[in-house]
Structures are given as C-alpha cells and as structure tokens.
Amino acid sequence: xxxxxxxxxxxxxPLKHFGSEVRLERDRAxxxxxxxxxxxxxxxxxxxxxxxxxxxxxxxxxxSCDRVFPYSQGRFVRMWxxxxxxxxxxxxxxxxxxxxxxxxxxxxxxxxxxxxVQTESYARAVLRTGRPVNLDDLVTARIARQRILTxxxxxxxxxxxxxxxxxxxxxxxxxxxxxxxxxxxxxETPRHRVQIIxxxxxxxxxxxxxxVLSFNEGADVVHVxxxxxxxxxxxxxxxxxxxxxxxxxxxxxxxxDESAKLIDSVLKDNYS
Length: 272
Description:
The chain is α/β, with parallel strands linked by helices. The chain has 13 helices and 6 strands. The protein has 2 domains: 3-86, 434 Repressor (Amino-terminal Domain), CATH 1.10.260.40; 89-271, Endonuclease, Chain A (2-Layer Sandwich), CATH 3.30.870.
C-alpha cells in the first residue's frame, strides 16, 4: 500500500475519520469548502486541513457541521470529544479525562497561569516556546478544556498563584493585559476562588505546580506538573499530603475577596 493511500485512509485516526465524515456530508449537501468555512466562521484553509485530518477542529466547527448538514443528527458534536482526545499527548490524556468529570479543581502555580484558565493568546505564547509542530492543535485542545467551567453544571475552581505569575511577562503587554483581566473576572465569579501569594521576599517552600481533582463519586486525585511530563497520584497518603500542602498555601495567600484588586493593581503598574 502506498503512503498516499495510507494518508487517505479514514480509519487511520480519529482526526482522519472526522475529516472524512465532514467531506462526505459537505459533498452530499453540495457545499464548497468556502461555503462551509463561511457557515463555520473559519477560512477555506482550516476546512481543508480538517477534512484531510491535519487539524483538530474546534467545538464550534463541529457544532456548525451539525447545524448545516441536514443528515448529521448531532454526529459531529458526538465525535468531537474522541477527536479532541487525540490532540493531547498520550501521557496527558488520563488527566484530561478525569478533569472533564471533576466537580472541583484546586490548582497551585508558582510561575505561569494554569492552562485551564489561559486566554488563547497566552496559551499560544506559552506553547510556542516548546516549538511544537502542532501548535494550533495544542492551543485548540488547551482552550477546549475550559468548557468544564462554563457547562450547565460547572466545576468549581480554586486557584492559588504566586505573585510572580502576574509579573512574569508571557508574550507581550497586550497578551498580559488580556490574561490578567480574565483572572480578575474569575476572581469575581462567585463559584470560583483565586488567591495570590504576595512576593514579600521569603520563599514559602513550594516550587512545583500541582492540583487536586474532586468528583461526585470516588476519591480525590492529585496531578503534578513536572518535566518532561506530568503525572497522577491516587494513593491516599499522597492525596492527603497534597491537600495539606494546598491548605497551607491558601493560608499564606491573600483572601479571595482581595484578589481582583491585587491583580488589577499589578495590571496597571506593569502593563498599562
């Protein structure tokens, strides 16, 4: 079998299958790629890449396909989670699946805004530093994770961030203004908590990003963000240690009601 034939095989991957189904429905509907791009609010190039299995489609694209193709019956939105899973590195997929069903997410980050609350521009700037060949797919996948915060029954979010997260410039001032404004909005959302550990010249002892996921059923799970890859901890002793560490961090941080004011102050002092 030729390499070209293998590349055209719709069973080669979830991306190939999704793209093949888009092309079949588009042909059935007598639509051009330009027409579909217009309906999905994207360009011809993105439609072509999705149909060839070269790009992970945003959820909005799947929703548009179900809206404009009369015989889809919701098929593209149903396929989309499988396609999105393919966009994550294999070692990250178990965590992404747990995060999707979590009812509570607690995170500590000493240097960067966590991916779960990054703006698209900030995420792109962070991910670009690793010079990945699939930057667009990684950005799409990272932003898609954030739907757990806006679904009908959203997960509760509790962030503890070192002040360095706010002053560590990622990209440029425009990107940072947008990102800090988003953090302010989160800090003022009643179901979420954002706390900042102010830089007072002393080290609090924690330098590694970590988080705790909680669920309606089942025990908590700890996620540790390390290099070259993150890992999960489910042993009860590890989970208890992480929860105790998180409790100490929240005690060191400013009260949640003061976070928005502090973030806004850093924004004005550093990025205005």
